[in-house]
Design goal:
single chain; mainly alpha; 3 helices
Length: 181
């Protein structure tokens, strides 16, 4: 009986060990399945992380590119604003020059209009006639002086032709601008 009991106990322990082994085998399979599942999830997460990191780097490059483009655009806008300002100043200067010339022309027109009015015309004509007669008198006087000089020159030529060459050198020229050296 002891033997049978030991056999029963042994069989019971074997059964229990087999049951524990089967249960541990199932648990091992469950754990292995869970490990495979977790490894798959980990791989998916790593791939997702790599994609997100790539997208993040791409976004950073885009941000840097956009910042550079914005900087260039801002510089261009500032340059165009300066050019527009310069153009406005140039146009303003030209407009001021034009306005100044226009005012001068208007002023000249007013002066000419006041000079050549019907009321002043007789006085202006009398003044012009007076100046004309003065110029005629001066012209007549100059013609007389010119005629006298031509006559004196002719007399000197005639006189020089009749006098021998040695004595001609000693004579003094009486015409203005004639000097003996």
């Amino acid at each position: 009986m002891c033997h049978k009991r030991a056999k029963n106990t042994l069989e019971s322990e074997i059964q229990e060990a087999t049951s524990v082994r089967d249960s541990m085998q199932k648990e091992l399979e469950t754990l292995l399945n869970e490990v495979y599942s977790l490894e798959g999830i980990q791989q998916e997460k790593e791939e997702l992380c790599q994609r997100l990191q790539f997208q993040c780097e791409e976004s950073e490059r885009n941000v840097v590119r956009q910042l550079n483009e914005n900087k260039k655009s801002k510089e261009l806008v500032e340059q165009y604003a300066c050019e527009i300002q310069e153009l406005k100043l140039k146009q303003r200067k030209q407009r001021m020059i034009f306005e100044n010339q226009l005012y001068q022309l208007i002023d000249q027109h007013k002066k000419l209009n006041s000079v050549f009015t019907q009321e002043r015309l007789p006085d202006e004509m009398a003044s012009a006639e007076n100046i004309k007669s003065q110029l005629s008198s001066v012209e007549e006087l100059k013609l007389v002086q010119l005629h006298d000089l031509a006559k004196a020159l002719e007399e000197m030529k005639n006189h020089n032709q009749s006098v021998p060459a040695e004595t001609r050198e000693d004579e003094t020229c009486m015409l203005p601008g004639c000097f003996k050296e």
